[in-house]
Every structure is written in C-alpha cells, then in structure tokens.
C-alpha cells in the first residue's frame, strides 16, 4: 500500500463569504466530478502552470467537504498549498457547488507514475531525434561550393595554399595542417577546395576518401550518437576513422565541450596513426583557443600551423577583377583600383562592395567609374578604416589583458574578461563599420549589452577614469585614455 505523508494542514479560504450560498457537503447519491475541478484549474491558472503542477503526479479525492490533494513530493506539496489552495477552493465552488477545505499531502506512490511519464517523454524525444538522424543519413551531403580554380593566391595566403597542395602529393611532407586567421580571409574556401580536389585524386590505385565538416557538425553528430537508443558508436567512428583526409572547419567550436573533445582526440589519433591526412581551420592560433584539451592543443601544434592574413592591396585588386568578371560587372580599372585601395578588410567585404556597385550599374545601365565607386561607397567607408576588423581588435585586446579571444565570446563575467570585452566593443564601434547589433551578434551578446559597454567606456574616457583588472602579476590599473591610445597604435 502506498504511504501517504501529510505535510500541511487543511486550509480554508479566508475570504469565503459568511452566508452559506452553496451546500457544505456532497449528497450521498451524487458522485463529485473531480475532472471538472482539474479542467477549471487549467482554465483559471493557464496551461503552462497547470502542466507544471497538476498535469502529472497529482491526485484529487473528496471526503465530504474536505478536498484532498495528493502530490509526489514535499516540494510540490508546499508549492501547491502555498500558491494554488485558494484557486482550488474557488474552482470547487464553481464546478461542484461546494465550499471545501483543501488538504495537501504527499503520496509516494505518485513518484513512480511521475517518473514513468518523464521517461516516456524522454523516449519520445529520443525517437524523434533518431528519426531526424535517419533522415539526415538518407540525404546526400550538399556538394562543396568552393573550387581551387577560384582561390586567388597572394602574399597573405601563399604559404597556406602551398602547404595545402603539398598534402595531396604522393609523399606529403606532413600529415596535419592547421590554418588560422580572422573571418573572411579564405580558410573555408581553401579547405573545401582541397576536399574537392582530393575527391578526384587517387593514391595507391584508389580514390581518396575525404570528408569536410565544421566543428558544429561534428559535435551534433556525436551528440546524436550518444543520445540515440542503440548508440551506434562503431558506425560513428567508422565514418571518420576510415577517411584518407578529414577537413574540419571552425575547430574553435569544440571549445569547452569536454566529451566531444575526448572523442575527437581518439578520432585524431586513429587517423594520424594510420598515416592519413588532417586539415583544420580556426579563427585563432591553437594556443589561443580557450578551454581546449591540452592533448589536442599539443597535437595541433605538432603539425604545420599557418596563419592566413587579410589580403594586401595587390591581392584585393586581383580578387576584385576576377569577381567582377564572374558577375559580368562593367567597371573600369580605376574604379576597381579605388575599391581595392579603400576596402581593406576581408574578402567578404570586397564582395559586398562589388554587389553594391553591381546594383548601381544595373539601375543606371552604365559602367561603374571611379567617381561612381567613390560616391557609392562613401557611407561604407565613412565609419573608419576598413583595414581594422573585429577579429583584429579581439586579438589585440585579449593579448593586452592576458586572456584569449574566445574568453571575449564566453559567458564569463570576471573583472578582467568584462573589462576587456567592454574595450573591444568600444573599439569595434569606433574603428569598424559594424552596427551595435552586428557587434553583439559577432561576440555572442545582445544589442543592449554593446550599447551599455560603449556608453560606460565613453564615460570613463570623458571623466579620465582608470580601469582595473587582474593579471597573473596581481591587480593592474591604467587610465582608460592611455589604454585606448596604446591599443589604437597597435590597430
């Protein structure tokens, strides 16, 4: 028999009227409709609260004018008695025509029922995830859009390009290549180009088996495997460890994911031990990816680590000429030269400028001249030197405060991280063309956080306030103006 533990005393609503307007007990020939009481409670308190406290793990019974409420544990009993006893009294009067007294107690037998419902709910969620996984397996992976023929080589990416091509030779000089650089400098383009080329190459009489994934894709596949009912870990591992070349983009996404990092470490070791190839890319140098398994970091550093810098003016000019030809954009050499000279950020910024010029050319029906380009891009260039990027700001600020760029994107709120994040947001607003929402989105924060950070920094500069933070050597303090001046020199 289930044990019932009373945890609160019966409660009568204090504001009930003194004049009896309804009977005080149920007639012996009437069966009370307690389901109507529950339906009335759902309507009175709302579906969300009803589902949380009344849908499962709760039982009602009526003994004369005493309404018994049995719940699964003491916490629920205290909550229901404190927050919903008066509502139960009101609903019972409306639905049953009774003035009742509410008594809340614990029935331990309800715990098993509640647990069963929770497990059933989890099983349904897992089944749904498995069905989605099965559908994704049945779907052919989307073809990689980047090709080597469209990758423009210059001084900023020549070493990366040469190193990537060397991996596809008969005897690669190294099995691991780690590319890093800010957003939009061509890391993804190069990784996909190598995979597309490797897919058509052959070694020892058979085509190379390669796979391109992002850090997020690898993580999601691992989580789906772990949460699936059959846990087909052998299939998951075979999918990766049988590859001739694994290209994984956005490696920094694995930061602070211990279980995924552990599995990737085993995958990495298996591929490396078999003498196969691993090509990776990240926004940061391996040592600057925070909360990364030390064993993984050491393995990343054991290979060829190459930085891809932002394109110089010569490379920007060649990229613009090729893209303009692909877009069939009529633009004279002076116009493209003007764009290459003034838009000095990432390749994506160059393409954005070309798209704008293309739209203007389509509307006017004439070729783009230098004067047209200067007028069209005036607002694009007005808010600062485009050579300054958010990635560059984050690298300089994090180095100054002794943290990593990943810390700026994390949820950490230590004095050092918060101060560095505020400075980075301020510099991004002052020295890039990014809006408040764009900065917030890029740094994983909301629009209002960026606005507040910029305002606080402006106040500190106006009032010549010092900023304090913690370093390995102890607390450091420096005037806000001095910090900004030092960082601006590096920018």
What overall geometry do the principal axes of the alpha carbons give?
extended
Q: Report the sheet-strand fraction.
A: 5-15%
Structural class: alpha/beta
**What is the CATH architecture term of the largest domain?**
3-Layer(aba) Sandwich
Largest sheet: 5 strands, parallel
Provide the spatial order of strands within the biggest beta sheet.
8-9-10-5-11
For CATH, the homologous superfamily of the largest domain is named as: P-loop containing nucleotide triphosphate hydrolases
Topology diagram in text:
Elements: E1 4-6, H1 34-45, H2 47-53, E2 58-63, E3 66-71, H3 74-96, E4 101-107, H4 109-138, H5 158-166, E5 176-180, H6 187-200, E6 202-203, E7 206-207, E8 210-214, H7 215-227, H8 233-241, E9 245-249, H9 258-273, E10 277-282, H10 294-301, E11 304-307, H11 313-326, H12 333-342, H13 347-364, H14 370-376, H15 378-381, H16 390-401, H17 405-409, H18 415-431, H19 436-443, H20 447-462, E12 466-471, E13 474-479, H21 480-490
Helix pairs in contact: 1-2, 1-3, 11-12, 11-13, 12-14, 16-18, 18-20, 19-20
Short structural summary:
With 491 residues, the chain is of the alpha/beta class. It has helices at residues 34-45, 47-53, 74-96, 109-138, 158-166, 187-200, 215-227, 233-241, 258-273, 294-301, 313-326, 333-342, 347-364, 370-376, 378-381, 390-401, 405-409, 415-431, 436-443, 447-462, 480-490; strands spanning 4-6, 58-63, 66-71, 101-107, 176-180, 202-203, 206-207, 210-214, 245-249, 277-282, 304-307, 466-471, 474-479.
